[in-house]
Amino acid sequence: MTAQFSPERYARLNDTSKPMNREALRMTTFRKPSSECRQMLDIGCGTGEFTRNVLLPWSKPCRKMVAVDALPGMIEYAKANYPHPDISYAVLDAASRDISNFLKKHGKFDRVYCFYCLHWIKDQEVALANVGKLLKDDGECLFLFVSQFVFYDLWQEMASMERWRDIIGDPLEIFPKSWNRELRPSLKDVETSVKEMVADAGMDTISCTVYPTSPCVFNNEQGVLDLLLPSVTTKDTASEEEKQNMLKEMSTRLINACTKTPDSCFFPIDIFILHAHNKTKV
């Protein structure tokens, strides 16, 4: 199952991720300069705004950018609002068990970007293995993702409550399987786990930088709810009234978990920026 986001709502919140995305680009020295790259891939492009306005100019003079998202609605929105002759938008689930048709159409890539997407993918091992397949032998990838955070914790807590057990869905339908632990993994454990998945995908980690307890900032409380609530799944047997009551409590818990200032609302997240490259196949 893929986390659901409204393109229109997401577009209003897109600024929250830009500073760290830019920081990831600034701090990364790619072994192969953009001038030697034929095409690049942006996984989890969302609305396409960052892809067109930041990532494409940053990656010049690379001649082509393919931008993909698992949600058809996002790709439709990106095509309509952020078209560019050097960007090809396409629907692709990064954790698909079969990417042969996509590879046949687009070929392999010199560089793969993936910002704020990996933590919304249940089968991270499959997604990383696919990145290894999508990269050329000397290709590189740059990931920005977060570890287990307050939304997952609250969802897991509510799913274990008797009054919501038959109404709210399992958060592990959306979030990585590796998050299903009795004790929250340390940041070092998360780093080790991701590096192992990278190695299993036939890639080598060049660097992995951690930004602990970084604020995920929104303009207001509604921004938090607009981003996260649409992802909450419910059981088929739940009535509409039960669903709305559950979402009301989830909303209250989310807002209570945030820190408020006069002009913002935020909760802490642990951010990982990982740079890896594909091993040359013999």
Automatic annotation (TrEMBL):
GO biological processes: methylation
Organism: Ixodes ricinus
UniProt KW keywords: Methyltransferase, Transferase
Presence of the UniProt keyword Cytoplasm in the record: no
Entry GO MF terms: polyprenyldihydroxybenzoate methyltransferase activity
Domain Methyltransferase type positions: 41-143
UniProt-recorded name of the protein: Putative juvenile hormone acid methyltransferase
UniProt cross-references to Pfam families, sorted A to Z: Methyltransf_11
Domain of life of the source: Eukaryota
